UniProtKB/TrEMBL annotation:
Bias kind Acidic residues: ranges: 66-84
Residue intervals of the DUF6598 domain: 132-377
Protein name: DUF6598 domain-containing protein
Domain of life: Eukaryota
Positions in coiled-coil regions: none
InterPro entries: DUF6598 (IPR046533), Thaumatin (IPR001938)
Pfam family, one: DUF6598
Region (Disordered): 52-84
Higher taxonomy: Eukaryota, Viridiplantae, Streptophyta, Embryophyta, Tracheophyta
Amino acid sequence: MGSVSIELPWMEMAGELPSFFEMEEDAEDEARRSRRRERTTSWWTRREEEMKTLLEEELRNPPIGGEEEEEEEEDRDIVDEEEADLDTMRMYRRGWEQSFGGSYGSFQDKTSLGPMRYTDGAIPEYASCESAVQIFSVQVTELKDGLKWPLHAYGHVAIRDLLDHNRNLLFERKRDNCQILTRQDSYLLLTGPSRAAVIIDPVAFEVDLKVKGERESEDKVLSLKYFQHSTVTSYESHVPMIRRCCPSKRCMLEVKFAVLYQAVEATVVSTKVVRGSWMDHYRGQVVCRTASASEEDIVLLDSRDGSMHVNSDGAIELSRSVVSVELSGLLIFRVVASRVNDKMDVIAENSAILTPMVGGKSKSTCDLGFCEVEITVAWSLFSILEDLRRHNIL
């Protein structure tokens, strides 16, 4: 079968995105939003000050009695980056437990909030658009300390936000299900977030990755990092891309993300072959982009060097399904079919464009010639104030 050549208008569509500063908001709605931000920001500032005080106290007065081994570990001079990272993560965890443990449970708890909270039914008054964090990729860009490709990596990468301060996992693998990273393909196969992350105030990123050895005792820390991001940058048509480089003893890790203004949550609830069939010898890739970040793909599924699995009913199961997009923007999906073991040999590709909504569902179709793939998205707003009240924060 010959190739289907289709020109994808990424940049042209991005240029049509209206300026966010041209949007008109109801005066009463803007006043309500301002009051909410003041209250949540004030609460966060108090929490941040409490955490800082607790961490300073830990450094001045190490714990005594019943924790001899831990005390000895903390008092030892930090001799390398790995020890420094471990010490930082230890203090971060203690600060989190002191500040948030009473309201949000265990430090290891995963977020209890799911996506599509206001997709169906009447939208409550307190639901609104918010600034949201869109994570594009996490990549090991450099190896150090004698590590060599390929790596068998496991562990987790997560983000925490104001909604419940629990782990919203972006990547999680157990030791018996490592991802093999190579020099040619060193990106983690992300499976999250499980819901969109908002950035009314700082979001926290956690990285805890290990390299599998022949025996568990020979496993090594690949990256153990914690960092925050709090900046929401104004923009008109193209969102600034943020690349956070995380150096450690054995690697350099890059987290690529952006902060989208006045965003809604988009959850892909169905990706399905509705006409024709997917060939067994075709690998598949499903990605999406926002019009404001038209040069960066959000990879929803990549079968890599194998064929893309399609269920008997035509359903395609994505690796990740939740993204964020500006309400005034566009969400652009692209499906690519190429030959197994040769991703450069593209058989067909096409795009589907969806206009964001505040609720409900919408769908569009990618016509690849040999088959059509239908993509259905559920839209939802956020509810910052209601979530804080639920935990007796406000």
